[in-house]
TrEMBL record:
UniProt keyword annotations, A-Z: Transferase
Protein name, as recorded: Phosphotransferase IIA-like nitrogen-regulatory protein PtsN
Domain PTS EIIA type-2: 6-149
GO MF term (any one): transferase activity
Keyword field contains Signal: no
CDD domains given in the database record: PTS_IIA_fru
Superkingdom classification of source: Bacteria
Signal peptide segment: none
Organism: Jezberella montanilacus
């Protein structure tokens, strides 16, 4: 089973999230993880923001992979968020970003964290998948695309 299938749930797929900046995406992600997983929204926001200060997690092609370590988390969890209007994200290709695959890992995460990030980056390098993720309006289909890789 792909690692992403173990970390992403359907309830964490949010399409057309109202966010107009990188900061707002991180704030909304914090609320999502707070509501769905009981994490403190400010801790999620801070973890994502702290990691982003080290360098952009923008992958290019309108996609970013924000991630961070969260104290008290015992297993990795992920969310996929799409916003209607792309925002600046300092991506390597200079493109604005409207799709975010957000990964939170335990504070002590090591190789598993890197394996999940590598899997996600590999999966999102598929142009056909990226296009589908951008046009599909049903969260269930987006979830299946991300967790199975089948288009």
């Amino acid at each position: 089973m792909p690692l992403l299938a173990k970390t992403l749930t359907l309830q964490n797929v949010v399409l057309d999230l109202a966010a107009t900046s990188k900061k707002r995406v991180f704030e909304q992600a914090g609320l999502l993880f707070e509501n769905n997983h009981g994490l403190e929204s400010s801790a999620v926001y801070q973890a994502l923001f702290d990691r982003e200060r080290l360098g952009s997690t923008g992958l290019g092609f309108g996609i970013a992979l924000p991630h961070g370590r969260v104290k008290g988390l015992t297993t990795p969890i992920a969310a996929f968020v799409r916003i209607p209007k792309p925002v600046p994200f300092d991506s390597p290709d200079g493109q604005l970003v409207n799709q975010f695959l957000i990964l939170l890992v335990p504070e002590s995460a090591t190789q598993q964290h890197l394996d999940i990030l590598a899997e996600i980056a590999t999966r999102l390098s598929d142009e056909a998948l990226r296009l589908k993720l951008n046009e599909v309006s049903d969260p269930k289909i987006v979830f299946n695309l991300l967790t199975t890789g089948l288009i």
